[in-house]
Amino acid sequence: MTANETPKSGTKTRYHHGDLRQALIAATRELLVERGAANFTLADACRLAGVSTAAPYKHFRDRLEVLEEIAEQGFNDLRERSGAAIATSGPGTLEGIIAMGQAYVAFAVAEPAVFRLMFGQNPALKKAKDVSDSGHACFAGVIDQVALFCSQNAVQGDAKAIALTLWTFVHGAACLLIDDDYQQVAPGLDVEALIRTAAPKLLVG
Amino acid sequence: MTANETPKSGTKTRYHHGDLRQALIAATRELLVERGAANFTLADACRLAGVSTAAPYKHFRDRLEVLEEIAEQGFNDLRERSGAAIATSGPGTLEGIIAMGQAYVAFAVAEPAVFRLMFGQNPALKKAKDVSDSGHACFAGVIDQVALFCSQNAVQGDAKAIALTLWTFVHGAACLLIDDDYQQVAPGLDVEALIRTAAPKLLVG
DNA sequence: CTTGCTAAGTTAGCATCACTAACTTATGTT
DNA sequence: AACATAAGTTAGTGATGCTAACTTAGCAAG
Predict the structure, then answer these.
(1) In angstroms, what separates the C-alpha of B8 from chain A's closest C-alpha?
(2) CA/C1' separation A18–C21 (Å)
(3) CATH of the domain at A27
(4) Into how many domains does chain A fold?
(5) A201 touches strand C (CB under 7 A)
(6) Nearest residue, CB atoms, B36 vs list A121, A198, A205
(7) What distance in Å separates the CA atoms of residue B152 and residue A161, rounded to the nearest whole number?
(8) This prediction's pTM
(9) Do B25 and B90 belong together in one domain?
(10) Of A20, A104, B18, B83, which has fewest CB within 10 angstroms of its CB?
(11) Where in the sequence is the domain holding A27, given as residue range(s)?
């Protein structure tokens, strides 16, 4: 008799106190922004949500399951942003590919903690099937898009290999940006320009 | 009367129990390899070194200071590896630049936890002056090397910008490799080949 | 050789955290 | 109106980071 399937009104109504599950996710995201995943404590998320420290375990197996859910939402978010970038810039075009790269970096900058959850090393998290599937779907979209460009522009060479190359570059840019590593050698670097310059080189070569 | 300056014999002799400072660093590195920085506990390092959990505070300010020292050693290690790669492949050559990139990735693969400490987000760690300086020196070497190539081969364009582009790509490859993200879309990818292909494209344009 | 200073260890204790168990509240159904 | 149960509570366990106060051991000077 899991009464989860038919909540009272529309989208978010749950039992007593409202939707604690989503409230905890929101609180966790807030804390992740402030202090990073390493220093985040579930107890503080409880305090933010105004519940006892035992309450989360009615909704989540683990401290980790909260992070899993956030990572999965992150992949959906990233896929939407990529899709939007392609849609406005034209599928299969150089501009579209570049816009996708910019969207990738923009996402990392907007949600660095979530980005690190998604791509950072966390074996327990990556083994979660939902997260793994979301990630795969996300990457598949990117690779397909690059393959489309290759076929439309008659670019020789393995489309998948090229896509991997582009992803590698854009991912590196995102990491170095959000981890403040660029600041050491090139403060105020224009990463958008960096991508705009490098993308065509890697695409045609 | 800090008696640290003139130890009894040569290099590592300290007071009673031997060199606990280095023993703790070694133990910490071991644990970092096994479980990553997030799940590492100082208490376990103490257990490995065979001392009480209060002992570290005679040698380190903090749990964090152990990590700072490891990060700093990591930058020195990376600089040595880069230097060796250049030395054997010829300074200012394409092969030299590529070898440096491979050395960067090889270091990340050999010491993923240390690599993450060095480049990952950890504001408290990056503010440590020793770590910051080591990092800067390391990057400066790389950039100089690329600049040398540019002048020797009469490549037009800003040498520093090109160096940043190369670093971005190689760093992305290292991250995606050690975080197991390539496995999702391209299991068994040959990263060395990826770098060998991309480097010339980014260098000349 | 003894005395004493002090670096380097110890045990004991604090506050916090993740998580569990057992109890209580309140909600929707019958 | 009664009840079954989802969703919350308090209380408790073991582990952690770190501190305070005590103990041990190495070195130097008298």
Answers:
(1) 40
(2) 25
(3) 1.10.10
(4) 2
(5) no
(6) A121
(7) 31
(8) 0.92
(9) no
(10) B18
(11) 20-58
